[in-house]
Specification:
The structure is a single chain. Helices cover 39% and strands 21% of the residues. The chain contains 13 helices and 14 strands. Strand 9 and strand 10 (159-169) form a beta hairpin. Helix 6 packs antiparallel against helix 7 and helix 9 (346-359) runs antiparallel to helix 10. The longest helix is centred in the last third of the chain and has 46 residues, at 364-409.
Length: 451
């Protein structure tokens, strides 16, 4: 049958073995196939079967000849078909020397083994897979903070748990119970597009699951998402400094509201946006003080959020950034001290609490924390002393045992010298002894005597 888009017999398909089900691989997915390629006279020029190594490619992206993008898209899992490909759908007038002559019609015996969705996860770990159902319009996609209007149907193990129309700003999906995986997928979707999204636990409801939707921990979710419309947010680079400051104030306000509602992850996102909008600040410009104030506030709030999220490394880093702006800031010193305590660094924590008390001697919270640091340091010192004392006792015992063992191994001195036996007593004096008759000599018992 002619499966070419123009019905010009450019791609003919003959099914050799039917496949399973009704589903065919959508554009963008990664397809795994076996194939054998021949010229019309039967001359074989390539075969993955001979190499015993299946071939993988991204369908519909132009990474293979046109005939493959067209033909494989019509095949089901397990299907085997012969694709006859005219030159304009294969290697054209140039061919592919030396094996494929110019203007060659080719035959491919193709078997579809499997496919997996387009990986949309930022780390390319397979956690977010997209299967296109209906292509969208144009080339534009939503950017961060774009206002999107979507329809979604979420299922878990065949049960629909979420079906609705919803509008929200990208980056704030958690506020309306849209999981990270769906948000990430929307950044790649076009207006009018409808796609099936498979979301692994890491990008879904995680190890906690969702009580509202009755989703157990570590669950894989499936969504069918339609992007109805979207309105792009203005890009940061296109804003002047006044616009950036106004936008940063808006994010700060959103972050504070999310913090009050206990939505700490969203609050962190908003405070980070404040930093990103003011990253390239004009240090000595007319808005310098206002920028500095916003940056200080954002770092202080980030540090507090991270402490509540039990992320002490990030809390320490944010507090340090705040102290780079104002080295005597009480909140920054206190929060970094708390972070150091969580990181089991009582001495560094004590330094920060002591520095805070120099700025504000009556800060009772800092006094309490400093006392806790000193107590911990004292306990550590006593523990170390005990450890070292035990080590020294152990080493002393080892030295004593070693000395005793060496004594047991020492030979008898007199035995090593040897007693004078009968042969020694009866032997003739040496020439030296004859010439020195008064020298002290050993008698037969091993005692010295005058000769």
């Amino acid at each position: 049958m002619d499966i070419s888009p123009k019905k010009d017999e450019g791609v003919l398909k003959d099914i050799l073995t039917p496949g399973e089900g009704d589903e065919t691989p959508p554009p963008g997915c990664k397809v795994r196939v076996h194939y054998t390629g021949t010229l019309l006279d039967g001359t074989q020029f390539d075969s993955s079967r001979d190499r015993n190594q299946p071939f993988e490619f991204d369908l519909g992206t132009g990474s293979v000849i046109k005939a493959w993008d067209i033909g494989v898209a019509t095949m089901k899992k397990g299907e085997r078909a012969m694709l006859t490909c005219a030159p304009q759908y294969a290697y054209g007038e140039a061919g592919s020397p030396p094996n494929i002559p110019p203007n060659s019609t080719l035959k491919f015996d193709v078997e579809v083994l499997s496919w997996k969705g387009e990986d949309l996860s930022k780390n390319k770990d397979g956690g977010i897979e997209r299967f296109l159902i209906t292509a969208g319009e144009g080339h534009s996609t939503p950017n961060d903070e774009a206002l999107v209007d979507i329809h979604l149907v979420g299922t878990h193990e065949g049960r629909v748990f979420d079906e609705r129309d919803v509008s929200f700003c990208l980056g704030e999906g958690l506020n309306v119970n849209i999981v990270e995986g769906v948000e990430n997928a929307l950044e790649s979707m076009k207006k009018g597009e409808k796609s099936r999204i498979i979301v692994k636990s890491k990008y879904g409801f995680g190890s906690n699951g969702s009580e509202q939707f009755k989703i157990p921990p570590d669950a894989t979710l499936e969504y069918v998402v339609t992007l109805k419309t979207f309105e792009k947010a203005k890009q940061c680079w296109s804003m002047d400094i006044e616009e950036k400051i106004e936008q940063a104030k808006l994010f700060k306000e959103k972050g504070t509201n999310y913090f009050k509602e206990g939505k700490l992850q969203l609050a962190v996102k908003m405070y980070k946006k404040v930093l990103s909008y003011l990253e390239y600040k004009e240090k000595d410009g007319p808005h310098g003080d206002e920028q500095k104030s916003l940056l200080l506030s954002a770092n202080l709030n980030l540090s507090l959020c991270y402490l509540k999220l039990n992320e002490p490394f990030e809390a320490r880093n944010s507090a340090t950034s705040a102290l780079d702006i104002n080295e005597n800031n009480e909140k920054a010193l206190f929060r970094r001290g708390q972070a150091y305590l969580s990181l089991s660094e009582p001495q560094l924590a004590a330094n920060d609490f002591a520095a805070l008390l120099k700025v504000e001697p009556n800060n009772s919270a800092a006094k309490s924390q400093l006392a806790q640091c000193n107590k911990t340091l004292k306990e550590q010192l006593q523990k170390e002393k005990k450890i070292y004392a035990n080590m020294f006792d152990k080493f002393a015992k080892m030295d004593t045992q070693r000395e005793e063992e060496e004594k047991r191994k020492e030979p008898d001195v007199m035995s090593s010298l040897g007693e004078w036996g009968k042969e020694d007593r009866e032997r003739e004096p040496t020439e030296f002894e004859k010439e020195n008759p008064n020298i002290l000599m050993l008698n037969g018992s091993g005692e010295f005597q005058d000769m």
